[in-house]
Amino acid sequence: MTFLPLVGVGLILALIGWPLSADSETLLIAVSRIVAGVYGAAVWLRWILIEGPHWQSWRGYVFGLGFALIILLSAIFENSIGSLLSGQAEGGQFHTWLIALAALQQILALMSRFSDWIPVFENSFLSRASPGLVLVSTFLLLIGMGTALLKMPNATVDSVSWVDALFTSTSAVCVTGLIVVDTATAFTPLGQGIILLLIQLGAFGFVTLTFFLAVLSGQGFSVSSRVFLGDLLSVENMRTLSTTLITIVGLTVGFEILGAIGLYFLWGPALGGGEGALWDSVFHSISAFCNAGFSTFSDGLADERAVYALDVQAILMALIVLGGIGFPVLLEVIRLLRRMMRPSERHRRGHMITLHTRLVLMLTLLLIGGGALLLWAGGGARSPSDPTGGAWEALFNSITARTAGFNISDMSALPASSTAIMILLMFIGGSPGGIAGGIKTTTFAMAILNLGRILLGRRDVQMFGRRIEDIVTNRAFAVVLISILWVFFATTLILFLQPELTMMDTLFECVSAFATVGLSRGLTGELTGLSKFVIILTMFVGRIGVLNFFFSMLLVKPQPVCLRYPRERIIIE
After folding, report:
1. Are 176 and 40 in contact (CB under 8 A)?
2. Which whole-number Å values give the CA distances from 72 to 27, 43, 180, in the listed order?
3. Where does 205-273 have alpha helices with state H?
4. What is the mean pLDDT of residues 464-478?
5. Which of 24, 397, 441, 480 is the most exposed place for a label (fewest CB within 10 A)?
6. Are 519 and 400 in contact (CB under 8 A)?
7. Under 8 Å between Cβ of 422 and 368
């Protein structure tokens, strides 16, 4: 019975991914209907005859028996439901509703099987592999699946190469936004939908979504899994892990929906209204909050339908900041606001924010404001008299450089000084515990504070009356050093493979890929096959983190060394 949902998904992919005759579509829909009906009936028969009550909560019954009943009834009355939804008994619209209903049946079947698959995933892989290896393997799985989906004939206008499909899939899963083929013209609505799905899955991560479905279905998981997920989400209180996980997913979906609604009402008339405007609004809202930078316009936000829509750009900037500030900060700010709204708790010290949140908020404002001021002073690509030039362009570029990747102007037209500032902002990136890339704001802060400690001759790194542990500053130093070396070697390798490229453009491209930003000075389309693989690997490493990547390469788990050797002096000037 476990394989039936996978068979059903394969049938749905064949239906939507390949051009088929009417008879072939009808046959596949019928087979999918049979598979769904058999699965739904099998779940109920197994529960009645063999298992009986065994779920620990009502959510288990909803995901198990509830979904199975919906699947069974929809398979039995499929034609009637399709006619009701389409409003007609024949024609292409009716056929489309049948395909959509069949897809819904198989998705529900997959979700209902998670209660059986999660223990297998925990025992066979999660409990045995290192956290770095888990992240690497799950992201590789998503990228591989995305590449295969983008190679389906119905996903593209004209077929794209395997390398270009791999590049696009990696860029979407790693929420980067660099493209080698035009998203607006090379991909069909199905292909754009696949890209958007990969963006959303890449933002959450395969492991996070797996445990989210486990929580929804009432499925418990082991202590080691809780520790792993707590480290992944930067959550210290294991007792509130499930609630935090649901809140994170809820906040993401909520902000994306609110963003899409705002964009549709402000942007809809310029986009012509209707389904097309709704799709563009949803796509850009998700892409902005996930800091992906993908757009359904060939020129991005520099398109004439977006470049002068300042209210639309303001919504996108807000989504970018919210998505890149980190979920720990968002959760703490929301918790603080809720406490402050209660008169009995306004004067309690318990609502004081943590050092991490204060540091992130301070650095976010400093980098956005300081970056905008420096970019305004350095000059932009647009005329200062242009509505989107001058201070507005500087502010937008300062925010989008924080790993978002949207552009309202030509990056190749920026002066050298502004380009250098953009490279620095991209390299720093967003904040930890969220979707943003780069070395992260807190890592940059720890590196600067540690430098200050050395210059001032202090023993510890101190901030706001608190001492930072050496392990944190050492980790920050390792991240900064390895990141600089990775960008250096990636830039050098591409220049070796393509000597005709300029140093500035190549460095900009590599930093953009490593920090999962997606901005480009027009270099991406000129890359050869080998150079594309360098950028693909750079995007991948930047998304999962340099330390996680190298830890995943270790075949043996590092062991602490008990002895200490005699000291000797090294001369450093």
Report:
1. no
2. 19, 10, 44
3. 206-216, 223-233, 241-271
4. 89
5. 24
6. yes
7. no
